Amino acid sequence: MTKRCGWVKMNNPLYVAYHDEEWGRPLHDDWKLFELLCMETYQAGLSWETILNKRQAFREAFHFYDAQKIAQMTDADLDGLLGNPDIIRNKMKIYATRANAQAFLKIQAEFGSFDHYLWSFVDFTPIDNPVKDYKQMPSKTPLSEKLAKDMKRRGFEFVGPVCVYSFLQAAGLVNDHEETCDFNSARKIIKRF
Predict the structure, then answer these.
(1) Is residue 49 flagged as an active site residue?
(2) Of the candidates 1, 41, 120, 192, which lies 20 to 30 Å from 95 by C-alpha distance?
(3) 177 is in an annotated binding site
């Protein structure tokens, strides 16, 4: 029988697939990183399951996370999304998606890629934490506080240290799979929280 991290909701195939195929795998594709960051910002105050269930609708609403197109959306375009029952209709989060696309594009221009900017915070090597029980994982770390502060300075919104830590875990910059999880990558470098 396959062993997974204790937080996985086994009754939702989207949740299981997300854990098995995405969460904690080192991600280097700018488009996928941007989508994942947006999803993490939508989650603030909500469950991850809610966001996963609305993922496809978010993709359709936001031009499949084409940052150039999102950055050019008008207030009228964004206000129109407030009537879409298939997404989270929080005006601040919807407007933050445009602000984040604009900040994302500036980072790409400055660093060559969003990937390079992010991974520089971990010296281009995933941080591998020995997690025995997911309930013992921190909700934020000095790393997530540092990155959140820098991202806010660059114009990102809804990127507090808790959101950023979830993003780092999801994008594989931090490996927080439980040690007994079959999807835990090989532990080559151990760095503590």
Answers:
(1) no
(2) 120
(3) yes
Q: Is 163 annotated as a binding residue?
A: no
**130 or 94: which carries more pLDDT confidence?**
94
CA distance 129 to 68: 35
Give yes or no: 48 in active site.
yes
What is the mean pLDDT of the segment spanning 144-152?
A: 98
For the question of residue 7 being annotated catalytic, the response is no
Catalytic option among 48, 65, 119, 165: 48
